[in-house]
Amino acid sequence: ALPISEGKCQIVFMLNNWDLQRQVERYLSRGTYLVGFPSQVGGGRNGHELNIIVFRTGTILEAGSRGQEFHATRVCHAFEDAGLTVKRQRRMLDWLKVHNLQQSLTAAPVIEAGSYEALVEDRHAVEQLVRGFREGLAVCRATGARTAGLWPAPLFALPTSILTRVMQSMFLDDNTETMVTEHMKHGLDEWIAGFRAILASARSHQLITPVLDHYEKVLQEHDWPATVSDQ
Questions:
Q1: What is the three-class DSSP state of 118?
Q2: H or E stretch including 224?
Q3: Mean pLDDT, range 137-151, rounded to an integer
């Protein structure tokens, strides 16, 4: 259906996917679609009950490459007409990799700790996550993503001891805790698939990633079958 729609309507992908560009461009050329992310709204689902969190950060939408500016502006106006605020991002695909990293790296540490609350209270586990995130940012850069200036990448220039305290404080935020724990009830498979896509990229670029390797062992020890092979 996507190739049939190419050029006939404006296609916008708003997905948290590590390898979005390669997967989409099996069907569409880069200039015929836009990328965004619904970061203004989060939450979770418990049966038929929805828990909605509205963040101040606007919906993210790429600025659009040359020739796409008009279409990107039309989509932006459509979002604004629906009551959303919109932040335009010139490095959308790079931003998406960093955002995917944030979500995907959370799964194994929570599983290893036993719960979100246990992870947040374990300084050593949070410190290990800081090191894992640094490894993940190196994977982003190895794939060609420019991480400089993309939040929260600048934080990781801080000393590990300081950043560990900062991350613990961020994890203790009520909205963050609700979003993570509620999303994990239904999205854990997705998070782990994302982590393993990142790990596969690390291995394909022959990067040394001891923390990411440890997280993969944690997943296997907790009966998440391995889907990543050494390359």
A1: helix
A2: none
A3: 94
